[in-house]
Known about the structure:
With 313 residues, the chain is of the alpha/beta class. It contains 12 helices and 12 strands.
Amino acid sequence: MEILKLIDLKVRFSTEYGIVRAADTVNLEIGKNETLGLIGETGCGKTVLGLSILRLLPENTTVEGKILYQGVDLLTLGEDEMRQIRGKEIATIFQNPLTSMNPALTIGTQISEPFVLHQGFKKKDAMQKVIEMLKQVRMPSPSERVKSYPHELSGGMRQRAMIAMGLACTPPLIIADEPTKGLDVTIQAQVVELIKELTTKSGTSMLLITHDLGVAAELCDNIAVMYSGEIVEYANIKEFFKNPGHPYTQGFLDSLPSRGLKPMNGMSPSLIDLPEGCKFYPRCPSAMDICKSNRPEMVEIAKRHLVRCFLYV
Ligand code: SF4
């Protein structure tokens, strides 16, 4: 059975400017030991989707559909039950440890929390577990570092501490949101290697949210492309790079330095004021009349390779 399955997930925010449609009828699944990459431009709804799984969205949010974690719909659970899920069953690695870690607590105290809360360790024993975790993420001088505050560490060290916190309880699923953002290239490569090694060793499944296709290529088994709140393409990693089907994916790949640095036309539409038909219509070089007022469904163009586009109908 899949670890996570999203069924017709819709996430909306009510704001004074109108309804923000951050995720629209999203269907996705992640299998055991699988890493699914969720890619797309900034503001397309990727992070919101990750936060909706953990039920960490503000009160002005409406979530519809199903979020099945090991068969249980997380949307039906109470807050106490969700607290048992977060960190123990589904953990997170956020993109900016300096803002997502508590600046007033040492990293030892913060990493030890899951051991105390979810595994019943006494504080002293939990600290020993933290030192072991820091060794695993190759933090220099782990016994000393447990006493450090986040601001006393380098960017790479903070991200290692964040990974240690995420993997502390060996969760079956981890949501990693831009885990290498802001790190220089050498440290980024080390962090990617570390995540790969630790998740493979522990058999952890991962939802990797990123706009960095290099990181996705290193870590993912499958890729889902998100555009304006919708999944527009899904494929396994090899097929994705070999045979990208959606015009948006093709434009995204062509804009990479390694593929000619060709910029895509226009900008993503506002999630408050989306086009009526295909959301990519205003920017699409292959647009047809039908695309203007009709929403394309996902079409299977090869085995387990799905594309939301009228070109394949
Ligand atoms: Fe382009 Fe039409 Fe396909 Fe949308 S449905 S991506 S507008 S060709």
